[in-house]
Design a protein that fits this description.
mainly alpha; binds protoporphyrin IX containing FE; 397 residues; Cytochrome p450; 8% strand; three-stranded antiparallel sheet
Length: 397
């Protein structure tokens, strides 16, 4: 009985201390925000769609507001001029993402560009991308891959025309094919039963969806580290499982490339981004030494960064268009301003090559626009749509 009283007393004292730490006089230099609860702070206000909740809160508390998420103080910028303050004026101070379990467990322990804190490693990673992936020369030399995959995509749509189809899978297959061929040298996933690659397109898609979800979730352990070991939401367990799948894939790709490197010795010429990274890993003059983890992390960033983002953008764009068909005419002009050259070309081809309709018995207002929160906000229900060819058959081959 006596020990129970001691525990209760200890809890009461802890709550008082926490309450004191949250007391308004400690907040006097902070922007306005909702009053926090002692332990969870304002975590309860984030809900399933944090971006929407933050928008609603900003209507009450203004374009710069303060939230307490567990034991962390957070400021939220909700207007273009406030965003500019953080991303331009005070960029150096705010450039790093806060450490997180996702950064550690599914981002090669921060050995990449997406999660690495601002510093030499991040700067070097960006420089490598700039010189070896996004330079005009590299983009030009990979243009044929994008064009080839776009034609494969359009002829696939032609084969399926007239029937309802889930667009997302076809977008993803094209985007993944493009980036894997540029970065890894080939697709590394099976599209038919005869192929013997390490995984199927469906497995890849599942891993990418899980990655986007787990990188964006509100993991309680990130905000209340003392509760992390309990993994109440089960996210840490899922991250560990996902890491194993990615690492198996990454190891396979690296070993494949190393084999060629060993076989060709002095005559080895880099053909893809992994080759370039492996060569750089041997470079003693590099400012920050690259190891296998960095090669895996930098490769994974490109694959992940380019696939679900573009797939989601294209799926949302088609959803908006199918809901408001009169916009299709205005779309090309809009696309010019909003998205990049290759996507613009693709959308233009899709709109020029096909009439787009909803499946029979479905009206525009039936298209559900519900969002699924994550690192990128994707459609909760994939868009199902019917393509009808507008051109002669040979134009699709
Ligand atoms: C519609 C398409 C895309 C969208 C909406 C998108 C969005 C974003 C966003 C919001 C960030 C975070 C930026 C930051 O924190 O400052 C990011 C980073 C990144 N993206 Fe994209 N992205 C797209 C396409 C691509 C493509 C095609 C690639 C690669 C071929 C790519 C590679 C990356 C990489 C490597 C990063 C990390 C860079 C860094 O943190 O500095 N993204 N992207």
């Amino acid at each position: 009985m006596e020990s129970l009283s001691c525990v209760l007393l200890a809890i009461a004292i802890s709550l008082l201390i926490i309450k004191f730490l949250n007391y308004p006089h400690r907040r006097k230099n902070l922007p306005p925000g909702p009053r926090p609860w002692p332990l969870i702070g304002n975590l309860n206000l984030l809900g399933h769609h944090p971006h929407q909740s933050l928008h609603k809160l900003s209507k009450t508390y203004g374009k710069l507001m303060h939230l307490r998420l567990g034991s962390s103080s957070v400021v939220v910028a909700s207007s273009p001029d406030m965003a500019r303050e953080f991303l331009r004026t005070h960029d150096r101070i705010f450039a790093s993402r806060p450490p997180s379990v996702a950064g550690k467990l599914i981002n090669n322990n921060y050995h990449n560009v997406l999660w690495a804190p601002y510093g030499d490693q991040w700067i070097q990673g960006r420089k490598i991308y700039h010189n070896e992936v996004f330079s005009p020369k590299r983009l030009d030399s990979s243009e044929y891959i994008r064009v080839q995959e776009m034609h494969i995509f359009l002829s696939r749509l032609h084969v399926l025309s007239g029937n309802p189809m889930v667009l997302k899978g076809h977008f993803l297959s094209m985007n993944l094919s493009v980036i894997n061929r540029i970065v890894l040298g080939r697709k590394y996933f099976n599209e038919s039963k005869d192929e013997k690659e390490i995984m199927t397109l469906e497995e890849f898609q599942e891993m990418l969806d899980e990655f986007f979800l787990l990188n964006g979730v509100t993991n309680v352990g990130d905000w209340m580290p003392w509760m992390g070991f309990m993994d109440l939401q089960g996210y840490v367990k899922r991250m560990k499982a996902l890491f194993k799948r990615f690492d198996r894939f990454n190891e396979h790709v690296l070993e494949d490339h190393r084999k060629r490197m060993r076989a060709e010795g002095e005559d080895f010429v880099a053909k893809d981004v992994v080759d370039v990274l492996l060569k750089l890993a041997d470079d003693p003059n590099l400012q920050v030494k690259l190891n296998s983890e960095d090669v895996k992390g930098l490769t994974q960033d490109l694959i992940i960064g380019s696939t679900n983002t573009t797939t989601t953008t294209m799926e949302w764009a088609m959803s908006e268009l199918i809901k408001k068909p009169h916009l299709i005419e205005k779309a090309t002009e809009e696309l010019d301003r909003v998205i990049g050259k290759t996507m613009r070309l693709l959308m233009a081809n899709m709109l020029q090559g096909f009439n787009w309709k909803l499946p029979e018995n479905m009206r525009a207002e039936d298209v559900d626009m519900e969002e699924l929160y994550g690192l990128g906000t994707r459609r909760k229900f994939p868009l199902v749509i019917v393509a009808e060819p507008r051109l002669r058959d040979h134009m699709y081959n």
